[in-house]
Backbone:
């Protein structure tokens, strides 16, 4: 008899797994429990996952009243929170039943908890109008009903979570593949694959991941995924093209991860992200940058024409005024000339930034002697700048591979900044030395230094120092940004130290091609 | 009595009238003879006809542009020995000088003294 009843329970388990709704599973087991235990009526509580409150899940049609769900206070039924069923053989003897006056409906009842591991799903209450005693067999059956129901619900839960996960994966917009790490054959693909590449799941499962990539052969692919195989990396991402079912190549980003389950074989999980839109936007922005560069080229050329005229004629006028000894007018003309020079520099800076953005900043490199380059520059500065004393010393002779004009531009920028940001009559020291097989040009001033707040922004575009203790200096804030880009292009680094005693040392470090160290002082 | 040398003739190829006037004025006041051409074709014709001692060449010219014209003049036997100085607001003049086989360059805006010494240097060759 017992085995028959257990078989009935197993059958209910199998049938219930196909159900969509958990409450139907509860109903199935309540009905079958009623039959097995020969109870008169039964009902079940369901405990909500979120609110942890009990509600009525099911009651058999012949239940003589509507059971109120158990509440913390009040409610006419207790719940069984432990894993073992609770058996009440005589309700007239039980305090709880007396209190809520339920002995008129039933003489005996049992509460079967639906408990799996630590999870309490609810209770099923089987009620008897006659007074019965719970034999060992009945108790075993009660426990079995509870266990079977709890197991069924747990499996159902896991299954629907898995189904939900697969459903979500199937419907992601990105294409997702799972493929074999040895044969590279695709074993799973989601609906995103159909949408993006046009292949059906059946079609794609006949292909390997290499078949899909027109520009990648097996050797190249092996090389790409080697870090995954050798466990040097957890995942890799690279850009490639995939062939659609219609033969069109689309740019994609492929993310590949070697996924291993506890006992299953290792598989590659791959997520394909379509880059068509991104590439389109990139091309558009490249086009815009090119247009901007063209605009800057033309605009700077056109701006330089009037600058040339103003500069030329003011210089000629200056010569004339020199002849008639009108020094005051010459002084004013000098001011005009200075401003014209500034305009010229601004135009050049804007043009350079535009070139940097489009990657068009050109370099004409050859071997340069740094000593003579720096020496000539310093000499020019010494001639023009009367407010500061500028000195130059060198540890030796250095040659680098570089663009003469561009390196001059960097050093000029640093010396100009040193003059701009240090008080009149202070020193500016330029030093050329060897540091770690590189030529290092230091430009040291004794000025305001760079505040901690500003230090990380110094090389940003359009950055301007706004120190509270000194005035705001005019300019576009492009000089150091351009200087750093130029130095980087020479394989070097531009850095600075703000001295605690005041002042800054900027250092240009560029690998030298030749160096002769001596104790030379120029 | 010393023989008076003919003053050197400089052909100015420049489409901006103010700049050409500036070049004309500064060069003439330094004893050079000048001739101004406002476009590429005119420069080409005058160069062949006058065989000047030096040409100051702008790059953005109507007609034939300065780069093409310099290459053309440097390829022709009768004009290949005339020194050509490229004076332009365009970047990377060094490269253009190499490409066109021009003799020198001066970026705009230029310094008058720099212009004069460059002209002097190339006329002395």
Residues:
């Amino acid at each position: 008899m017992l085995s028959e009843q257990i078989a009935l329970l197993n059958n209910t388990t199998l049938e219930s797994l196909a159900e969509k709704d958990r409450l139907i599973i509860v109903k199935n087991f309540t009905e079958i429990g009623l039959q097995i235990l020969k109870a008169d009526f039964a009902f079940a509580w369901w405990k909500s996952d979120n609110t942890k409150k009990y509600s009525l899940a099911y009651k058999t049609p012949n239940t003589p009243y509507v059971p109120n769900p158990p509440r913390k206070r009040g409610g006419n039924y207790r719940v069984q929170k432990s894993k073992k069923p609770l058996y009440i053989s005589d309700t007239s003897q039980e305090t709880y039943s007396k209190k809520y006056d339920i002995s008129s409906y039933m003489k005996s009842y049992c509460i079967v908890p639906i408990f799996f591991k630590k999870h309490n799903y609810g209770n099923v209450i089987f009620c008897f109008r006659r007074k019965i005693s719970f034999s060992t067999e009945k108790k075993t059956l009660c426990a079995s009903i509870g266990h079977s129901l709890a197991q069924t619900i747990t499996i159902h839960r896991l299954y629907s979570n898995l189904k939900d996960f697969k459903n979500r994966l199937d419907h992601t917009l990105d294409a997702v593949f799972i493929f074999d790490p040895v044969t590279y054959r695709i074993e799973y693909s989601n609906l995103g694959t159909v949408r993006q590449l046009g292949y059906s799941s059946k079609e794609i499962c006949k292909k390997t991941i290499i078949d899909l990539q027109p520009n990648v052969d097996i050797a190249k692919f092996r090389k790409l995924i080697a870090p995954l195989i050798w466990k040097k990396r957890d995942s890799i991402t690279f850009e490639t093209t995939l062939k659609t079912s219609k033969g069109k190549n689309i740019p994609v980003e492929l993310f590949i991860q070697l996924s291993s389950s506890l006992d299953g074989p290792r598989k590659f999980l791959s997520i394909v992200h379509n880059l068509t839109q991104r590439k389109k936007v990139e091309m558009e922005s490249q086009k815009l940058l090119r247009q901007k560069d063209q605009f800057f080229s033309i605009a700077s050329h056109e701006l330089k024409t009037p600058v040339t005229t103003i500069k030329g004629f003011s210089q000629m006028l200056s010569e004339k005024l020199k002849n008639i000894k009108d020094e005051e007018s010459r002084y004013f003309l000098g001011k005009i000339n200075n401003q014209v020079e500034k305009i010229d520099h601004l135009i050049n800076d804007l043009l350079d930034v535009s070139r940097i953005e489009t990657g068009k900043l050109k370099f004409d490199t050859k071997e340069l002697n740094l000593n003579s380059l720096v020496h000539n520059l310093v000499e020019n500065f010494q001639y023009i700048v009367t407010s500061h004393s500028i000195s130059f010393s060198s540890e030796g002779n250095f040659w680098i591979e570089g663009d003469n004009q561009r390196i001059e531009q960097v050093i000029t920028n640093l010396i100009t900044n040193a003059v701009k940001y240090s008080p009149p009559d202070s020193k500016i020291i330029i030093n050329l030395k060897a540091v770690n097989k590189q030529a290092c040009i230091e430009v040291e001033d004794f000025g305001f230094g760079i505040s901690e707040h500003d230090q990380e922004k110094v090389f940003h575009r359009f950055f301007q120092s706004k120190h509270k203790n000194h005035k705001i200096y005019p300019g576009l804030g492009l000089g150091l940004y351009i200087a750093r880009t130029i130095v980087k292009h020479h394989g070097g680094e531009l850095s600075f130290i703000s001295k605690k005693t005041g002042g800054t040392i900027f250092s240009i470090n560029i690998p030298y091609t030749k160096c002769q160290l001596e104790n030379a002082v120029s | 009595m010393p023989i008076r040398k003919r003053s050197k003739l400089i052909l100015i190829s420049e489409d901006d009238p103010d700049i050409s006037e500036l070049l004309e004025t500064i060069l003439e006041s330094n004893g050079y003879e000048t001739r101004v051409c406002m476009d590429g074709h005119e420069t080409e014709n005058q160069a062949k006809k006058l065989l000047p001692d030096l040409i100051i060449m702008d790059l953005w010219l109507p007609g034939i542009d300065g780069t093409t014209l310099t290459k053309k003049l440097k390829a022709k036997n009768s004009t290949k020995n005339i020194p050509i100085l490229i004076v332009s607001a365009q970047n990377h003049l060094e490269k253009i000088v190499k490409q066109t086989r021009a003799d020198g360059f001066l970026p705009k805006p230029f310094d008058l003294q720099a212009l004069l010494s460059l002209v002097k240097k190339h006329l002395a060759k």
User: Anything to note?
Assistant: The domain at 9-124 of chain B is CATH 3.40.50.2300 (Rossmann fold).
